Amino acid sequence: MYDVIVIGGGVTGCAIARELSKFEGKGCVIEAGDDVCSGTSKANSAIIHAGFDAAPGSNKARLNVRGNAMMDELAEKLDISFRRNGSLVVRTAEQPEEGLRQLLEKGRQNGVPGIRIVAGEELRAMEPNLADTVVEALYAPTGAIVCPFEMTIAFAENAYENGMEFRLETTVKEIEKEEGGYCVRVEKRAADQTVTTEELHTKAVVNAAGVYADVWNNRVSENKIHITARKGEYLLLDKVAGNHVQHTIFQLPGKMGKGVLVTQTVHGNLLVGPTAKDIDDKEGVNTTPEGLDYLPDSAAVSVKNLPLRQVITSFAGLRAHEDGDDFVLGEAADAPNFYNAAGIESPGLSSAPAIGEEIAAEVAAKLGLQKKEGFKDTRKGVQHLAELSMEQRNELIRQNPAYGNIICRCEMISEGEILDAIHRPIGARSLDAVKRRTRAGMGRCQSGFCSPRVIDILNRECGIPMEQVRKNSGASNFIVGKNKEI
């Protein structure tokens, strides 16, 4: 019997799991993917929003500002790549002045520190590549950028080290109320695609299932919610384009969201996107010609001379848009001990730390869980060779020669870093899991050079047969057989 089961291993579920691991009790995270951070949390704008956009008094506004304020300490303690680069919401000459002033007033009501309107020479000095038609901007100094992979994995690893169990490639099939809590029926899929079933019993359930959160709420509660999958497509540019802007550049938001942004990433790339299209397919993460063609012209409204010849990849992610246009949080009124963290779209990444704090406190209070003595609140990420001085690199290689063997030439990732990713808590078991922990495969050639070498390392270190090494979950195998015997 578990005290609590968290459904969903995205940034929200893992933030909740970390906060729950501060309390005594038996907890578990169930994730359908082969790794945490395999859904919305891996395909978003990687922005920690300042908090000026959400309606005052909403869950989004309250938790965005709180989550933003938590990030400096979390980034230091959990070794997360994070930088406060500030954000600008730009207005062109054709747009009415009141739009920016309304955002400014909302931001002030939400408690966003330091926001102000900038224009003229000050604005052009901040961002020389703004479009010529831009006349002013709302500046928010607390806006920031983060690595969403590191953030999610850091929450998960820290939760794991404090006793939280993780069940990956495990899909929830049914939830039923029972005496004392809930029965959660799951299917576990092995690397060879064999499936086993199991019934898990728990006192409480936390529903952080992303675009599927409405499914599980509606199984146990008469207070129905409805989530639409809102697709966002992106272009990622090479690091040589990374300095085209210094801040995160937003356009005035519309009914479908904050529009197409242009921003640096914490790793030095340039990101353009997203589109916003509501779709029926909750697995529809394919890019489309229409979506990708839309991005350059839309981005040019705010930023000129985008070096689009430097695009190295494109991707799409889904946001969980709930009809009420706000986060659905807390215990369902007619389903005791069933807690929702549903409708977590933008600013979900920014709000995740605060959502975790709030939901875990509610669950712990309801179950009477006591604070854990000796909670470990720090975590050290993968040691990246490229971040070290030459002396430090040489010493690391002397201690472990695997750090002298470069596997990914684009990002200069060594075998030692990949071994660390495999053997650390909740270790990587697929190419994408290695990539999210090390960046091997994220560079200019997009894993064209390093993927065979990573496959070989996974085979050697994990004992996974070559034919079963996958890109991610499901039947994503690279190798189907041998073309000759050696």
UniProtKB/TrEMBL annotation:
<dbReference type="InterPro" id="IPR041854">
    <property type="entry name" value="BFD-like_2Fe2S-bd_dom_sf"/>
</dbReference>
<dbReference type="InterPro" id="IPR007419">
    <property type="entry name" value="BFD-like_2Fe2S-bd_dom"/>
</dbReference>
<dbReference type="InterPro" id="IPR006076">
    <property type="entry name" value="FAD-dep_OxRdtase"/>
</dbReference>
<dbReference type="InterPro" id="IPR036188">
    <property type="entry name" value="FAD/NAD-bd_sf"/>
</dbReference>
<protein>
    <submittedName>
        <fullName>FAD/NAD(P)-binding oxidoreductase</fullName>
    </submittedName>
</protein>
<feature type="domain" description="BFD-like [2Fe-2S]-binding">
    <location>
        <begin position="406"/>
        <end position="459"/>
    </location>
</feature>
<dbReference type="InterPro" id="IPR052745">
    <property type="entry name" value="G3P_Oxidase/Oxidoreductase"/>
</dbReference>
<feature type="domain" description="FAD dependent oxidoreductase">
    <location>
        <begin position="3"/>
        <end position="361"/>
    </location>
</feature>
<dbReference type="Pfam" id="PF01266">
    <property type="entry name" value="DAO"/>
</dbReference>
<dbReference type="Pfam" id="PF04324">
    <property type="entry name" value="Fer2_BFD"/>
</dbReference>
